[in-house]
């Protein structure tokens, strides 16, 4: 028996903690030097270290754990027949140490487990123990750490078989602990990103067999798929869209529509733009036919897909914009309100993100001749999107006749037989006037006096005569990747990171949530000029919230100088402010609510100047206030 082994065994039998720790440290150095240990001494040493690992003293337990790695390597080189004894007696304790609260203890335990695997000659027993004890351990941290062990073994040992562990890893995708689920997803993506095609096919098969949630599967596949896989996906989608829609294929069509949307939101376009556009071109006819389907669920799914395609592809959707807009306009006039609204949302996203073209405006002019009041009302909203989204090209639009055609659409809307269409047209006219003041002035002077009087009554206070300094927030970008928020006023672009691989939670939606067509036709306010002045303060083209100063002509007509005056908030209740369509008004409502609550809690605090009177704006009851605040939490406005 060597001196270090004898000293360690003697110390571990005693009660002196310091001597135990010192003896194990000396033994560790001896093992690293390759000191041979007699078989009978080895048996006693394994038992003694096992008891030390279970000790309640953290210093002793940690020192015994650090000694296991050198012991395993030493025995593998000198007495391989005793490796199974080390595995059977010490592995369960090492697995438990993976769940320790201290990082350094977990790191050492992970390294010991790697040494046991790399040194073992019979891995069947070790595999069974890890699969049963680690993957099914009651501590979530152990389940998380064992995934790191698999990743480390894969990198360090080329012959490490991943197939043995695949089912256990996939099972953790549905673990009760969120951190384990996330670690499992990251592990699979890390291991299979560069794996051969056969391994990826086996992974897909296992994911289907285990009935893993679709969102999780889509995330994993979007991360590991390559361009060839994307092409294969589109080939699979092609068959159900061939021929007419039937009872047998409409369900498959809906499935592939949702799958295409998952690929889009998973970053397939930003990674493989050429292959993605080729695939979209192949199935575009099927997408258009699905928009006109009699199955409501299929139509709704397709409309959402078109909305996402416009938001993500941007100008790349231009080749399909003509046919898509014609179909969406047709669907906007149908009786089914769900289908009509979904089609309107998709059309607004398309008009906001696609490049301007005269053909699109021609379609709007044609739709203004339709007999459907519902459709004509929606077209007025579409005109607003075109004006706000493409104001940066106002000179080019005017040169090719687009501005004049928009003027004709508004003129027809201003004299429409339906009052809602007329009211919506008056609201949009003043936005048109800001971009093309000469055409707006000509239109204003060409209508009948009664119509002109109504238009001037609805004129926002911050509209100035012959305004030519109309500058959009940003110019249109043609770079590929997830779209950015470039038109705050229209609210139809995606807000997100520039990282092409980032995935929008999904979960929480970041784009196109506003229902614009209904807001264009809002009921007339008792003080429309004040309301519109407030709304225009959040415009893309007038970023400050305070209304701009009136023009000189206004000052002359009144005979006295006028200074910018903030819209009086007292004309709105807290509920009206919080539900207002203008983001600046909603922000003021939140501030007023916070001030009211703070003042209510501090009854003795004197009222500060400038704050809203509680009697004028009482705090609404919880049953009314809570739903509104929840909606504001999901508000897509950056402010």
From TrEMBL:
UniProt-annotated location(s): Cytoplasm, Cytoskeleton, Spindle
UniProt similarity note: Belongs to the CLASP family.
Keywords, in A-Z order: Cell cycle, Cell division, Cytoplasm, Cytoskeleton, Microtubule, Mitosis, Repeat
Compositionally skewed regions (Basic and acidic residues) per UniProt: 451-468, 501-512
Biased composition annotated in UniProt, kind: Polar residues: 550-561
Listed GO MF terms: microtubule binding
Domain TOG residue range list: 1-217, 223-461
Annotated GO CC locations: cytoplasmic microtubule; microtubule organizing center; mitotic spindle midzone; spindle microtubule
Sequence ranges of Low complexity compositional bias: 471-485, 522-545
A biological-process GO annotation: cell division
Pfam families associated with the record: CLASP_N
HEAT repeat residue numbers: 625-639
Principal cellular location given in the protein's record: cytoplasm
Membrane-spanning parts: none
Span list, region Disordered: 451-567, 599-620
Entry protein name: 13272_t:CDS:1
């Amino acid at each position: 028996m060597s001196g270090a082994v004898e000293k360690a065994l003697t110390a571990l039998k005693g009660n002196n903690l310091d001597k135990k720790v010192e003896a194990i440290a000396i033994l560790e150095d001896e093992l690293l030097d390759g000191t041979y240990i007699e078989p009978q001494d080895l048996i006693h040493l394994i038992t003694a270290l096992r008891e030390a690992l279970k000790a309640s003293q953290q210093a002793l337990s940690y020192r015994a754990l650090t000694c296991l790695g050198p012991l395993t390597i030493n025995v593998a080189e000198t007495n391989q027949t005793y490796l199974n004894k080390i595995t059977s007696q010490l592995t369960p304790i090492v697995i438990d140490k993976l769940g320790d609260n201290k990082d350094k203890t977990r790191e050492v335990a992970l390294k010991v487990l790697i040494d046991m695997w790399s040194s073992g000659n019979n891995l069947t027993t070790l595999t069974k123990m890890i699969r049963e004890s680690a993957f099914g351990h009651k501590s979530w941290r152990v389940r998380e750490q064992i995934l790191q062990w698999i990743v480390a073994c894969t990198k360090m040992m080329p012959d490490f078989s991943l197939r043995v562990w695949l089912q256990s890893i996939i099972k953790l995708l549905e673990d009760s602990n969120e951190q384990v689920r996330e670690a499992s997803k990251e592990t699979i993506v890390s291991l299979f990103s560069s794996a051969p095609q056969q391994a990826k096919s086996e992974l897909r098969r296992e994911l289907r067999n285990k009935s893993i949630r679709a969102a999780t599967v889509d995330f994993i596949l979007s991360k590991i798929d390559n361009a060839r896989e994307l092409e294969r996906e589109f080939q699979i989608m092609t068959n159900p869209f061939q021929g007419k829609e039937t009872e047998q294929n409409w369900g498959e069509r809906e499935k592939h529509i949702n799958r295409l949307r998952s690929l889009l939101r998973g970053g397939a376009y930003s990674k493989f733009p050429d292959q993605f556009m080729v695939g979209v071109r192949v199935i575009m006819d099927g997408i258009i036919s699905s928009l006109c389907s009699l199955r409501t669920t299929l139509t709704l799914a397709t409309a959402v897909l078109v909305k996402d395609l416009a938001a993500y592809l941007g100008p790349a959707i231009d080749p399909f914009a003509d046919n898509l807009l014609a179909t969406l306009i047709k669907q906007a006039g149908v009786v089914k309100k769900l289908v009509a609204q979904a089609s309107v949302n998709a059309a607004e996203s398309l008009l906001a993100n696609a490049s301007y073209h005269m053909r699109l405006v021609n379609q709007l002019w044609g739709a203004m001749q339709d007999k459907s009041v519902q459709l004509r009302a929606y077209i007025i909203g579409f005109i607003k999107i075109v004006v706000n989204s493409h104001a940066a090209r106002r000179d080019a639009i005017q040169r090719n006749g687009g501005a004049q055609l928009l003027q004709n659409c508004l003129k027809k809307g201003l004299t429409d037989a339906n009052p809602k269409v007329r009211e919506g047209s008056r609201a949009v006219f003043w936005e048109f006037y800001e971009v093309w003041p000469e055409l707006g002035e000509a239109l204003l002077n060409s209508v009948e006096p009664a119509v002109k009087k109504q238009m001037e009554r609805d004129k926002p206070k911050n509209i100035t005569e012959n305004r030519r300094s109309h500058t959009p927030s940003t110019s249109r970008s043609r770079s590929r990747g997830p779209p950015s928020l470039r038109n705050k006023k229209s609210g139809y672009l995606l807000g997100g990171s520039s990282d092409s691989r980032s995935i929008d939670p999904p979960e929480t939606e970041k784009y196109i949530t506003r229902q614009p067509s209904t807001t264009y036709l809002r009921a007339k306010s008792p003080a429309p000029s004040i309301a519109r002045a407030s709304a225009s303060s959040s415009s893309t083209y007038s970023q400050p919230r305070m209304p701009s100063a009136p023009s000189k002509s206004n000052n002359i007509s009144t005979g006295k100088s006028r200074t910018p005056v903030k819209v009086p908030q007292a004309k709105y209740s807290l509920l009206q402010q919080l539900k207002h369509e203008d983001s600046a008004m909603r922000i003021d409502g939140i501030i007023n609510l916070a001030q009211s609550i703070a003042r209510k809690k501090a009854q003795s605090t004197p009222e500060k100047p400038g704050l809203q009177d509680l009697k004028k704006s009482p705090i609404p009851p919880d049953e009314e206030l809570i739903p509104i605040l929840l909606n504001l939490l999901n508000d897509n406005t950056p402010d």
